[in-house]
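Hello,

Our lab assistant flagged a job as stuck in the queue for most of the afternoon. It eventually completed. Since we weren't sure the result was trustworthy after the delay, we are filing this so someone can double-check. Below is the sequence as submitted and the structure that was eventually returned. Let us know if re-running is recommended.
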Amino acid sequence: MDINNRIASRVRELRDAQGYSLDTLAERSGVSRSTISLIERGQSSPTATVLDKLATALRVTLASLFEDSASEAAEPSPMARAGDQPVWTDPTSGYIRRNLSSAARSPIQLVEVNFPPGQQVAYDTSERDVEIHQQVWMIEGVMEMTVGDVHWRLEKGDCLSMRLDCPTAFCNPMREPARYLVALTSVPFTPFTPPMLARRSG
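-- returned structure --
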């Protein structure tokens, strides 16, 4: 299946599962109704920033938007052959992401990213209804990452852990491509309750 059609199918499926109308998803994500409509018809190549906004509004990881629809993966195999792994290129920066994980149910998702030299991508990620934790492990090259107000420089072999609840930015400052592995997992969001309040409510 063409990658844009795969994204279209997943966005429609996830929107229907949440019971959102196009207007509701547009309001929650900050992406215009017309843009979402084009994406759902497979007539648009959305940028990484737009997909991240939709994923946040739909309460899933960005990687989830590249998975097979539930109808196509009723009994998914635990094996993801290299030739079957969906590959997507951000039309703005040219960065390439490959979903490595199979469609089998798992709390962990693996993604390989090839990031062109001199390019950057910024996500206006905000607090979600689920906690999404991510680790980035550098395989080749150098990446500069900003998580909230904190700046990090990652070189080969470095690994950075982060929670996706604040704006993040990825930049390759070098003249050579960078390649890294991303591991993601999500857990239900549990609001913090002060100990004294917890004792009183018990």
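-- support follow-up --
The delay was a queue issue, not a problem with the job. The result is valid. Residues 3-18 form the longest helix (16 residues). The radius of gyration is 18 Å.
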